[in-house]
Design brief:
globular; 356 residues; flavoprotein; alpha/beta; NADH dehydrogenase FAD-containing subunit; NAD(P)H dehydrogenase (quinone) activity; 5-stranded parallel beta sheet; FAD/NAD(P)-binding domain; FAD/NAD-binding_dom; oxidoreductase
Length: 356
Amino acid sequence: MTGKHIVVIGAGYAGLSAAAGIGRGPDRVTLVAPEQRFAHRVRQHEIAAGRTVARPEIARVLRGRRVAHRATLAVGIDLDAREVRTEDGGRLAYDTLVYALGSRTAWGGVPGAAEHAYSAERAEELRRRLAGAPAPGTVAVVGGGPTGIELATELAEAYPAWQVRLVAAGRVGGWLSARGRAHVLAVLGRLGVRVDEEHRVTAVTADGLTCPDGDVPAQVVVWAASLEPHPLAAESGLAVNARGRALVDDHLRSLSHPDVYVIGDAAAVDLPGTGELRMACATAMPQGRYLAKLLTGRTGKPFSFRYVTQCLSLGRGEALVQLIHGDDSMRPRVLTGPAGRLVKAGIVKGLPLSLR
């Protein structure tokens, strides 16, 4: 043991993989996160549909590693004193801080959204609401991105008595290749999902969505329009960009505070030829693994990354694996049907195993 204390806050894809990897080295590591089990965020749509999702215990992931799990929430950071304040009233001094608090659903300033809509983080509550409804009606899913598409298809398949509507400000799956988008729309159609594109939501009420192009009556609203980084980085004084993501160098070190590393959705990682990496488990876990190698002396090279695929669940019977270039631009080729389903399932089920 060197006596150096590394504190990791956040136990998502980036934070937990970083803590497990750093724990292989000689330093003392404390992981600060209230969860007892890994959240496995990319499977929230399955939880909402009542599926059983394997979520390993954090203690099991960290077994055999020099990591102490402090099961509480980080509520403040004193960057000058090098201390993390926790919800249970504690103060943790650190030599090096790994900030990995990730992102959360962004309400976009839309009136009533936070009050009347379910987010992916409330997947279990959403499941109870849909399963327990005596007289099903309409579920409006807001957002034509990956989360919105996965929720709409999963809910339509799991709760066929409900009418699912997918409402998007732009085109549903508009970032995908032509083949990829066509497949998504075809599956949505087969599942009976009504798609409203170019349909901007200006308010959410107890009766549904308010839209300039026509209101959408709904008994349940699910909000999946966008994500935002956790605000603690900006509130603590770390240098952030306009979106609130922390500015880091090519070794994922904060530009304003060199004793702090930022990884995952919280970090604005800008790579030559690619630009700023998007928020995703596909970018977060490689950052966690890289930082573990860096802080245990197994590498000194700058962080590098190239995209390979983007995968979407489209209910239990379908999936889309969109092949992409290393810079995140779309290739024309996609995998669908049994092949796409097997690839997607293999990736999702393998993620918890790769945390160590």
